[in-house]
Every structure is written in structure tokens, then in C-alpha cells.
Amino acid sequence: MTSDILIIGGGVIGLAIAIELKLRGAHVTVLCRDFQAAATHAAAGMLAPDAENIPDEAMYSLCWRSRSLYPDWTRKLEDSIGLNTGYRPCGILAPIYEESRGAGEQRSRGAGEAISSSSPLSPSFPSPHARESPAYWLDRAAIHQYQSGLGDEVVGGWWYPEDAQVDNRALAHVLWTAAESVGVELKDGITVEAFLQQQGQVTGVQTNAGVIRAAHYVLATGAWSNELLPLPVRPRKGQMLSLRVPEFLPELPLKRILFGQDIYIVPRSERSLIIGATSEDVGFTPHNTPAGIQSLLQRAIRLYPQLQDYPIQEFWWGFRPTTPDELPILGASHCPNLTFATGHYRNGILLAPITAVLLADLIWEQKSDPLLSNFHYSRFHTQPSTSTSMLTHSANFSNGHRHHPIVSSENPPLLTQDSTLVIAGKTFQSRLMTGTGKYRSIEEMQQSITASGCQIVTVAVRRVQTKAPGHEGLAEALDWTKIWMLPNTAGCQTADEAIRVARLGREMAKLLGQEDNNFVKLEVIPDPKYLLPDPIGTLEAAKQLVKEGFVVLPYINADPMLAKHLEDVGCATVMPLASPIGSGQGLKTTANIQIIIENAGVPVVVDAGIGSPSEAAQAMELGADALLINSAIALSQNPAVMAHAMNLATVAGRLAYLAGRMPIKDYASASSPLTGTITS
């Protein structure tokens, strides 16, 4: 039976959405790769919109609304299955040290009177905006009276009485059990490998158990989201540990959550103290480290010194899903039957109830809360207008950029009329493709692409994913309504890796408005020194990608037999190297490229190693259909001028090929006729 809703991700967000939709009458399935690995299990369970001092008003409103749902939400969950979530409206105390006293007191003066130990507590609000929840400033005497045992360096702090906590691991268990009890279909151990799309709709997901289909899909895979779609969601590792309050202490000495500088301590009723968390931009690097745990313990002991004598109970780590602005991605996507619920960063536990309600309203009732507009994925894909510098620069190279000079309206047709470049049924006027890497700046890259007149630009998917230098704003840097994106699997060492990155590249193109773009430049390069492509891995990956409907442009050694095999499995072009990539050595494989051109029934694109316009012209004179040039342009002293030169060379070489060069002779042949000459 096909589900109404297929939710990808079995953490707290995915499960909360599933339960809400099921209660509204939907048939819901949840796919979970590994329930125990979800970020839910690695959190501390703080519900702290006030203590976090969230500066973004929309985000604060979202968090505040979610916290207000928590009492009723957890009570209903607990009542339905008879299990406890550990929800407690315990409040959060945020102590401040001497070095932060100025900021704390300034905040107090901006919001109201500071509270001394002899004063009754009265509410004040964080400046600059009045907010829904009360907050109290405590001076040194008041805060030490309020919570004994704080470090001597604590000189004051804030008390947030409406912040709370939940036992995140207990909550995850309750949500999973509740989902089962209401009839949500839960499938653990299922890895989603790719979205299948057709005509702007998701038609299914490819998994390790085959294709699974539904009417609507929800992406809730947290830190792993950009393994499926090119969303700007990255893992931020957090290490944590817990201590055990010794049995000889009759009661818990710490009554409240302490939210200090880069540290928090969460007391649990079962006599555990949760200490967290580091914030490390290290990708999916696993394990606890001595440095990480040491930093947590040092900060925790400074805040609450008696912890130094408590026994350590457990260490663990997890990966928070973070976006560039640290706000979640919620709501509609580029496909009408796909909804996003990811990027919650440090507030996944807190935001579970409100995410479930808002997205259930959106999916099942077609009602969109105005707040969702602040978290739409498109905020990362605004299209800039062409910069003045680009227009000024490109004005110096105005002849023949947008179209092939032979068929330009500014030039009369020549006697030798050229055809256009056609790849998989798509027509291009320019026969020069360029890349986006190795430039000294985004501006140089923009100017060079304009000057080159190219219509196809390669984009290294993995470098965009990881925001490698020079690729941070690539999606916004070019006008993708005029340039065809060629996603590139650069950096992939195996066929499986290249297949996964190719799928991401296809989604990247769709996110940027190229709905029908299934192109991929296939690179499988395990050799780090010479960067030579793996012929076996390339052929293996090409076969699978062609089956999945990709237009495959494989980068290969100049191997005529391999080129033919790739054509036979359905590749749209072959792309033999002229010499090792980035070497600038020029044409070192001329004889083999000539054989490939002679035998090919698909366009042949000479790729890699071309270092100068003369070499570009020579490659085209051989009969190549197109060139792909990146390093020779990007690493030149004036990339825009070199790009223009490569454009002219490509055109000149193509014209020379069409015109047909004179035969090469072993002897001289006078250029002037000998008959009719004047003799003495």
C-alpha cells in the first residue's frame, strides 16, 4: 500500500510530524536509517528560548510558541502510552563571570532594575525587544543565594523561570512507541539513497530496500540532509558527558539547569548531570576526544566546582544540523509534493511540537503559517543581478560572446556554415565549456565566464557542499537562466561515491531552477598524485547513472576502447584528457584523441591539460566537438582576457577544421605560379 506521506528521518522531528499527521487521518510511513544514531539521542533536552537569547525575532517566536506547546504535548504523549518523557518546567539559571559583567549589567539597565538578595523578584525583559517570557537579573549575592555551590567567579546572572527541560532519550522512546501505537508505519534500517523526480514532482525514493513511493514526502534527516539534496545543512559535532551525583549526598545539590559561557549543566531526576557541549565544524568525524572532554570539564568545574569530585558516567557525541544562518529550513520545497523539516541546529528537541503542527497544517490542510516564510529554503538561493563590474568588463569583449560568431546576427554567414553543438537533444551555440574552480575570487570567475561566451559551466558538487574556498556563494554568483549547469563529481574516488554525488548534483540544478537538467560530468579519480581517472569505476558508475536517467559526460583517459564502451552503455559524450588535469602540458594524446573522434557517434569534448589558446585551437582542428577549459583560464594572470582568447581559439580551431587544412607535403611548393613569368 502506498502511503499518503513518506517521512525520511526517524528523529524527534520526523516522529513528531508523523504522529501529528496520523492523528489528522493520514497514512504515514517513516524511514529511519538508524534510530539510535539520530541527533535526538545526543542532545541534553533543554527547552531554552530565553536562556539561548536568540537574536532573530522570527526564530525566537517559533521557539517560544513551541515551548508553550510542550506541557500539553508531552502530557498527551505520556497518557497515550503510559511512559514518562521527563518534561520539567524547571527554569534555567544563566550565571555570568566578571569578564562579562558589563554586558550583563547593561542588559539589566536596558530592561529594568537589577535584583539584589534583599529584593523581591520582579520581571525584566531582555533588550532591545520586549519578549513574551519574563527574565530576572540577579546580582552576586542573589544568585549565590538562589543556587548554592556556584563558583566564586560568578558575579551575577539571569533567571529564566519559563525555560524547561525534557529527557531527550526518554522523549525519543516515547515518540517511537506512540507512533507505533497510533498506526504509523515505522521502518528502521532503511537508507534513502536518492530522490526520484519527474516533471517537477518527487516520484519515489531509492533505498537499500528498493524504490518506495508516496503521494507526499518530508525530508527530516537532520545533519545528513545534504547527502540527498544540495541544501546548505552541515553537521556540527557536539561532544557531551554525564556525571553521577554520589549516593552519599541525600538530595540533588543542583536544583536548576545552569547555562554558562560555552557550557551547560542539566540535572536529571535520576541523579545524573548532563554536561555539554562542544561545537566543532569537523564534518562527520566520530568519537570523543581528550581535548573536547577536557574543555567541557574545565568550564563545568569553573561554573560549579564540586563537580570535580563526581564520578564520570558516560561520554557521547552527536551531529547537529546547522545552516549558514543557524535557522531551520521549514516548509515548501522546489517540488510541490516535497516538504522540508531540517536544519534545526541546537533546537531540534525544543522545536519538535511546533514543527509538527505547522507542517501538518501545511501538508494536510494546505494552510501556511506566516511564520514559515522566514524559514523557506529559497533564502539561500536569491538570484543576484549582474554586477556593474561584470557589465563594464565584458563590454570590452562584446563581439561574438553570446553566440557562435558564424551564426551571429552581426556576421554574415560564411561559405562553410557550422552546425550547433547538440548534447542529448539540447542545443548549445558555444563549443567552449568552462569551470568555476581555482579562481582568486568570485568576481574573477564571473568576469571570465562572461568573457568566455560559454553556455555550459561545470560545478564541483562536493566543493559547493563543503563550501570550499571560492565556492561559498557559487549558487548565487551566476545567472542560471542563461548558463547550463554541468554538475561535476570531482573528488569522488569510487563509483558508489560518484553516483551519490551525481544525484546531489541533479538536485542542485533543480533547486536553481533547471528542472530538466539531468547532466552530470562523471569523474572517478582514486589517484591523488596524477589525478588520472579510473576506467573501471567510471564505466561502472556510468552504467548505473544512465539507468537512472542521467545525461552522462564521462571524463576519461584518451582510451579509444573505453570511449566506445561508454558510448555503448548510453553516455551522451566522451571527454578524453589531452594531458593530466591542471598540468597545462597541452596535447599529449593527439593520436588517441583522433581515433576516438573518428569512431565516436557522440560529441567528443577534449578535457584537461590545455594550457594556451594555440593548444585549444589545435584540439578543435583535430575535429573535437567542444573543449572544457578551467585551469588555463583561472590560473592565468588575467583570467577574463584569457577566457576571451580561449573563446576565439575555439572558434578559430573549429573553423579551420570545417575549412579543411592544406595537405602536408615532404617538399616545397611555390605559392606563386611559374607560368607567365618575365624572363630575361
Question: What report would you give on this structure?
Answer:
- The chain has an 8-stranded mixed sheet with strand order 5-6-4-14-15-16-13-17. The chain has a 6-stranded mixed sheet with strand order 8-2-1-12-19-18, with helices on one face.
- It has 3 domains: 3-86 and 165-233 and 325-380, FAD/NAD(P)-binding domain, CATH 3.50.50; 92-164 and 235-319, D-Amino Acid Oxidase, Chain A, domain 2; 432-659, Aldolase class I (TIM Barrel, Alpha-Beta Barrel).
- It has 18 helices and 29 strands.
- The model is unreliable at 107-113, 117-129 and 383-416 (pLDDT under 50).
- Helix 2 (57-81) crosses helix 5 (168-182).
- By secondary structure, the chain is α/β, with parallel strands linked by helices.
- The chain is 31% helix and 21% strand.
- Catalyzes the rearrangement of 1-deoxy-D-xylulose 5-phosphate (DXP) to produce the thiazole phosphate moiety of thiamine. Sulfur is provided by the thiocarboxylate moiety of the carrier protein ThiS. In vitro, sulfur can be provided by H(2)S.
- It is an enzyme of class 2 (transferase).
- One of its GO terms (biological process) is thiamine diphosphate biosynthetic process.
